[in-house]
Amino acid sequence: MTLKTLLATVAILAATGASAQDMRIAIVAKSLGNGFFEAADRGAQEAAKELGGVEIIYTGPTTTTAEGQIEVVNALIAQRVDAIAISANDPDALVPVLKRAMQRGIAVISWDSGVAPEGRMMHLAPSSDDLVGQTIIKLAADHLPDGGEVALLSATSTSTNQNLWIEAMKQHMGDYPNIKVVATVYGDDLADKSYREAQGLMQSYPDLDAIIAPTSVGIVAAAQAVSDAGKIGQVNVTGLGLPSEMAGAIESGASKSFAIWNPVDLGYSATMIAYHLAKKDVEAEPGATIPIGRMGEVTLDDTNSAPMSEPFTYDSSNIDEFKSVF
Ligand code: RAM
């Protein structure tokens, strides 16, 4: 390399903000602009700082589509990142591009919303799917002692995590014979579409008692729609949300309670796992344990998946304590 090309390379690196880190780990969100993934990115940055020599590339499409994520992953392959940790918009559509990434030596994991086993080395689930399903119906049922009508407002119809949680929830409906699930609609993790879908539910089902939104975007939009419709006290909004984004809804009474795990810890742990797999100091195989820094370790099951923690419930008694955390 001549002095001139060396200087040009240094100038490009400086202009693009690229640094000479030993390892680059891409954290791929379902979409940009979602506070849940931004909180996970904070955890990823924390892990990178702790590990040293690691650069986090936080990225994702502008809307929650598999096509958008395929483009993002292709760009990451071209950039020759060391690891990709993705929350997938579709369990199957991303498999070919992620397989290509692995063939090029990139460590690939899914977290939050999984991809099919052939498209990743392991999956980090925030919690047990069954427990999440059980939790979201219980949150609604706890405020419906005489039963009633509930509707689901989900993210996209192809979203792996929401589909698993909804399926799990339906397995627990036998515990609540007086509660009827009247509809499932999809807000695509877009605030405006979720708002309109929540409005549509209230119009189509005038006796609706609760909206269960197992998505941090949908739950906020549904609470707003209930509040704007003057239905606080009539339609309770619950599901999965961030205390920072739901504090207003708890205060207004649009939501009596909701649950979530710590997204910062999830992003932190995904980064730790991606790091170890890229370094090849652990192998992703059933029974393997992978260290995750301050969070301890995870053990892979026979599908190379590992659940992390239990969902935690927030209501008026503890929201103030957590709303500044995530
Ligand atoms: C949204 C996304 C994410 C999910 C949370 C609860 O932010 O759909 O995948 O885990 O909600």
Quick summary of this structure?
By secondary structure, the protein is of the alpha/beta class.
* Total of DSSP H or I helical runs spanning 4+ residues: 11
CATH architecture of the largest domain: 3-Layer(aba) Sandwich
Percent strand = 15-25%
Oligomeric state of the chains present here: single chain
Structural class label: alpha/beta
Low-confidence stretches: 8-12, 14-18
Query: Describe the biggest sheet?
Result: 6 strands, parallel
- What fraction, in percent, of the residue positions are helical? 40-55%
End-to-end separation: 47 Å
Structure description:
Mean pLDDT is 95; it is low at 8-12 and 14-18. This protein folds into two domains: 3-125 and 263-308, Response regulator (Rossmann fold, 3-Layer(aba) Sandwich), CATH 3.40.50.2300; 129-260, Rossmann fold. Helix 5 crosses helix 6. The strands form four sheets. The chain has a six-stranded parallel sheet, sandwiched between helices. The chain has a four-stranded parallel sheet with strand order 7-6-8-9, with helices on both faces. The chain is elongated. Helix 6 (160-171) links the parallel strand 6 and strand 7 (179-186). 42% of the residues lie in helices and 21% in strands. The protein has 326 residues and is α/β, with parallel strands linked by helices. The chain contains eleven helices and 14 strands. It has helices spanning 3-16, 35-51, 66-78, 95-103, 129-141, 160-171, 191-204, 216-228, 243-252, 263-279, 319-322, and strands at 23-28, 54-59, 83-86, 107-111, 122-125, 148-154, 179-186, 208-213, 236-239, 257-260, 289-291, 297-299, 305-307, 312-315. Alpha-L-rhamnopyranose binds next to helix 8.
